[in-house]
Design goal:
DHBP synthase, about 325 residues, 2 domains, ten-stranded mixed beta sheet, alpha/beta, binds threonylcarbamoyladenylate, Rossmann fold, binds magnesium ion
Amino acid sequence: MNEKVGTDIKRAASHLKAGELVAIPTETVYGLAANALDEVAVTRIFEVKNRPQFNPLILHIANLAQLEKLDLRFPAKALALAEKFSPGPLTYLIPTSSKVPGIVTAGTPAVAIRIPNHPMTLQLLNLLDFPLAAPSANPSGLVSPTKASHVSEQLGDQVNYILDGGECQIGLESTIISFLEPIPRILRYGGITTEAIEAVIGPVNLPEGGFVDNPVAPGMLARHYATNHPLLLGNADSLIAQAHQTDPIPRIVTISLNQTYKEIPTAYQFQLSPSADLSEAARRLFATMRLADEMDIDLIIAQEFPDRGLGRAINDRLKRASTEAGQFLKPLTQ
Ligand code: TXA
Ligand code: MG
């Protein structure tokens, strides 16, 4: 048993007060947390994740009352959303203040704020008199962790404590919405759907350029969530057919909502939700990508998800994990 993994919230708090790193559970994915007001501690997050310093971090707080101490203010539409969705998987990008260290915002004029919805982490935040800066607790560019064991496998040596809050219930990162423009803009699809947001505050803008890099959010690089094996996203039937025309034929594992593929052995097919429930699929996505990647295969083929609700966030993560089919498979007509 790894003595660094446990459920001791007070111990987590004392490491954080000492300027050390603690992995924290949230409803979305595990975070790699440090005292956001301690620049040395925050610098450690970037080192441990091997994350470029131009990529800013989300500030996690226990409740909106903490904003005042940081000289931060939510605009009216953000407040309306917070009333409905916070604590929860929604992150608000608002103008920053001089109280927030530049390393947290990567020197940009905006700060990202989230109230995570996990009882242990809310309790932890209530023991602290500072907010926590926390990116997802994975090495930069790799799949995000949804279990404490994922964190200990990838970053175990470099964190002081891993607070084990069980399996993440949402399984995908928070939705990020920016209030820097007159019409709010979704910067990252995530745990709260666009449909649910628009039901509260009316029309919002969508990420610029769809899946590609977003200049407002430098961390949302096109290639992210990378598996070791190449992952192709699209129409799985036709990708399998193309793969079967290559020589040698690659060993394939599939990931889909609930589809089956007769050419692929059953043990090599992952259905994220047999009942086609997108929230169940979201919850299982990252853990399944890890399992698929650990198999003795050459190629992961993922069927594109429905372009609605959480399906959009799932497609976004798979798209960023994916390789261009053309780079891996010879075109059919040749
Ligand atoms: O669900 C989540 O949001 C998880 C949990 C741990 O809270 N956190 C998370 O953090 O996904 P991270 O660092 O993996 O992704 C945060 C994204 C990055 O792409 C970053 O570029 C963007 O948020 N971001 C953070 N602060 C920003 C800022 N000031 N301006 C623009 N983008 C920002
Ligand atoms: Mg991340």
